[in-house]
Amino acid sequence: LRPLVPAIQSCDRELADQLRRAAQSVLLNLAEGQKYQNGNRKKHYEIAQGSANEVKAALDAAEAWGWLETRGEERELLDRLLAVLWKLTHAGLLQKPEGRARSRDRQ
Length: 107
Prior knowledge:
Radius of gyration: 18 Å
Oligomer: single chain
Number of helices: 5
């Protein structure tokens, strides 16, 4: 993202600042979430996911205004990051609870 920020900044300082802050929020919330084992971990990962979506939206806006000419590899990296964050925030939903029978299994 680093090379894109000056290009966006030359057209819209506020959008470039928002993009920079959202990208930093992703990094900081991932780091913060790593040190927890309880619900705070998921909360920080959810915030990181929201910030990553904000980065994507900022890039979409810059493209829509014509400030970025081509889509680079940062989009692929961002999509992979969002996929990882989705898995991290939905991990508990994907695993079958142990020791609990489903309601239809009890009948």
